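Entry:
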Amino acid sequence: MMNPVTQKNRNKKKVFMLVILSVIATTFALFLIFSISVLSHKKVYAGVYINSIDVSKMTQSEVSELLKSSFTDRINEIELIVKHDDLYHKFDLSQFNISYDIENATNSVITIGRSGNIFKRFYEIFQVGKNGTILDIDFSYDESILRNSIEDFYNASLIEVQNPHLITSESGMSIYTGRPGNAIDKEKTLEIIRNSIKTATGGTFEVPVNVIEPSKINIEEIYSQVTQDAKNAYVLVEDNEVIIIPHVLGRQIDKSQLENIIKEFNDLVDIEKELPIEFIEPKIKTQDINEYLFRDQLSSYSTSFSTGNQNDANRGVNIRLASSKINGLILGPGDVFSFNDVVGPRTSQNGYQSANIYVNGQIIPGVGGGICQVSSTLYNAVLFGNLETVYRMNHMFTVGYVPYGQDAAVSFNELDFKFKNNTNWPIKIEATVTNNTVTYKIIGTNETPEKTIEIQNVQISSTPAPVKHIDDPNMEEGKSVVVQSGKPGYVIDTYKIIKINGVETERIRLHRSTYRPYEHQVRRGTKKVDRSDSTNTVIEEELNILEIPEDTIPSSQYEIDDNF
């Protein structure tokens, strides 16, 4: 039988155990209720901030509305001013196309403490509630517009650095030591504006300024800028107009004096010091130019032509027309004259007439006959003017309007005559056609009046004209007719003789001209006749002789030469 005391103790233990179990069950139940309450919470947990805004205990929609009113809706109301000294610049944030990602921000805060197992969630909720957590709201803007706006402020506030340099005036030259410049820090300004956009707050901000120091004075560089040679005034020719380029004064300075001045002022700023410069005047000043322009006739040359028949009259028309294209042309120093470029195509559309030309050894009418007399006359004016011939070719056969060796053949797109103005001044070509005489004058500036030019042609060899007899059975035997007058061929060397005050100083061979012989053709009769009632005297008749103008000789090996 159990002792009553023992039984009593056992009952006490049972009661104690029941109390313990009841407490545990109650605690567990309370914890379970708390856990369910915490973990099923629909609002943002305590300690959560977006930027500086406390969004604790807010629903997702409440957070969204708060962010919209705190950021998106405020953009047009924010006033942001940046300044430097007394210069202010107001930035209108609405122009930067700013956009805030409110949806992502609300999703981010509402997920805090809501991922992972129960213990991870409780730990995150506890840490956030204890220490707090701050999330940044994502935003975007137009970077190019923002930087352009900053650049405008930068340019308005910029005080450019003044590096050492020379100052030139009518009275002399000075050296300026330079001065520092100031420039706002563009990246710091960008940082201020970005932070204003991020926080959707305005205000007035002083921007930092960078000081830009001037460079040190470079003695060699300054010396090279100070010293210069005197330059004469000169002229250019554009669109057949003379343009005067002004003269330049020469300058020189004692280099040791310059070094001493620079050593004295190199560490000072905003100082101007006059330099001891010596000016040198050029030989030809701007105001003197007109005294030199077209003051001298460098040369003149004339040739004659006939207009006795239609062919010659047409040649005269062509000579006048081509000369009118050249008359008044001005060439600047170094300019090259091209006959074909200036005269252009010799066509009937351009007014040129038909005159005798050679095609494959035959005489036929062709447009532009007589033009080579123009080029040859001009060539001789060039020779006696001592200008530089760039390109010239002689004719295939001799011509009669200039001495052998002094002709210049031309053919459009085939053969050109070119010369260069090798003088220091512009030259003008004057062409006149009067009383069947074409004259070319070169007007310019003769800087060596003591110099004269003579042209000498030396015959190296000659070849007689070949004779061709053409039998004519319809012409009486013993009679003949010249149908083509022949010409001998020649090889001619042409020399330019330079004389100073009448004394020869130089003899230059210009070129060798090779002229082919031109066939002499005679038609002779072979018809037998009864001469019983007449004498046996052979009579040679020159009937229907074809006169060939001296300038209708083919100029080269080209198949067709249409420019004689």
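The radius of gyration is 53 Å.
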